[in-house]
Amino acid sequence: MAENMDMMIWSSLPVPAILIDADERIADLNPAGEGFLNNSAKWLQGQPVWDRLAVDAPLEESLKRAREHGTPLFVNDVDVGTGARPPLVCNLQIAPVMGRDGWMVMLISPRELAGRMTQSHSVKSAAKSAIGMAEMLAHEIKNPLAGITGAAQLLSMNLPQEDLELTDLIVAETRRIVKLLEQVEQFGNLSAPDRREVNIHDVLDRARRSALLGFGAHMKIIEDYDPSLPMAWGDPDQLLQVVLNLVKNASEAADSINGGTITLHTYYEHSFRLRRADGSGQTLPLQIEIIDDGPGLPEAIKGDIFDPFVSGKENGTGLGLALVSKIISDHDGWISVESVPGRTVFRMSLPRAPRAKKESN
After folding, report:
1. 32, 91, 210, 317: most buried, per Cβ within 10 A?
2. Is the Cβ–Cβ distance between 208 and 247 less than 8 Å?
3. Backbone angles phi, psi at 354, to 5 degrees
4. What is the mean pLDDT of the segment spanning 223-232?
């Protein structure tokens, strides 16, 4: 009975847990650990733990002391990777196993999602303030702009050819401002997602075909999909808008003559879970990455790229990525970016379609 209870507790732990023997080999791991390492416990048992887990911190001496003295070890804010995906910022808790000399149990608590949740909340708050103010002014600004445009067009009818450049400039600039105001209004008026089962690969394929026929005709777009990926839970039109925006940004950042490569990559990650401030949680196992080999994001704005009115483009409005962040947040998902010259990765994490709802349909 006690052994069954131990197994129930081991299997119920919400974070990845790895049992390490005295020879630094994997003795066992719980289901969350299997998801984190993306392999079964049966296959991993007996393998050197540091061959399967990469921790960006000097642990050898600290772990040796903890093993010798039978004391726990806590390591915070370190990058932990498995080789199968980008590393996550995690907290590690390592403790000796009672009754097993030299054995240790390690708990891995990813922190990246908590940080992204805070960032997402900040972005939404900033967006709400900025858009609320802009919406109040939009109507009053658009009306006189329409009058200015009309007046300039009337003037141009009686001007000599050499003066038409001035009226054309007035018309072009007023239309540009109107377009910006319309984008602001679109950002503020975006409706809640109409959620349903979505094949994310269909969304990506629609975006790829649209890009190759237009703004991404100079790019090479590669599909790298996990064919076993389950259905997502979201609004297909809004998710298409997100992917199109990200692919368009990557296309515009590339060399207009030589082009570049965009990779659409999907995979399943069992251990991705979003924890909210109220203690509730949301599993986000569906991972979608938009990867390009362009110049990368400007260092000065890299940390604020999802904020409204922040743009790395010369004439950018700074609303595109803020809109992307808002849509993903409304889907209870999260989005992050990693960028260095030659490789920029926008990664979205989304919930899968509820099983109960799928069975009832």
Report:
1. 32
2. yes
3. -60, 135
4. 93
Global pTM reads 0.59
Tell me the per-residue pLDDT of 160-209, one tens digit each, with 9 for 90 and over. Answer: 877 788 888 888 888 878 777 776 666 555 678 889 999 999 999 999 99
Instruction: Report the distance separating Cα 132 and Cα 81, nearest Å.
Output: 41
Beta strands 334-340 and 26-29, pairing class: unpaired
Q: Copy the structure tokens of residue 127.
A: 């967006």
How many C-beta atoms lie closer than 10 Å to residue 30's C-beta? 23
| Structure-block tokens of residue 258 | 């030589």
Phi then psi dihedrals of residue 338, to 5 deg: -125, 125
Tokens of 326: 């808002």
Tokens of residue 116, six digits: 């992204």
Residue pair 323/343 in contact (Cβ under 8 Å)? The answer is: no
- Predicted local distance difference test score (pLDDT) of residue 81: 82
Other CB atoms within a 10 A radius of the CB of residue 160 amount to: 6
Backbone angles phi, psi at 90, to 5 degrees: -135, 160
**φ/ψ of residue 182, rounded to 5:** -65, -35
Mean per-residue pLDDT over the chain, rounded = 80
Tokens coding 320 = 């595109």
Contact 245, 9 (CB under 8 A): no
> Which structure tokens are listed for 48?
């050197």
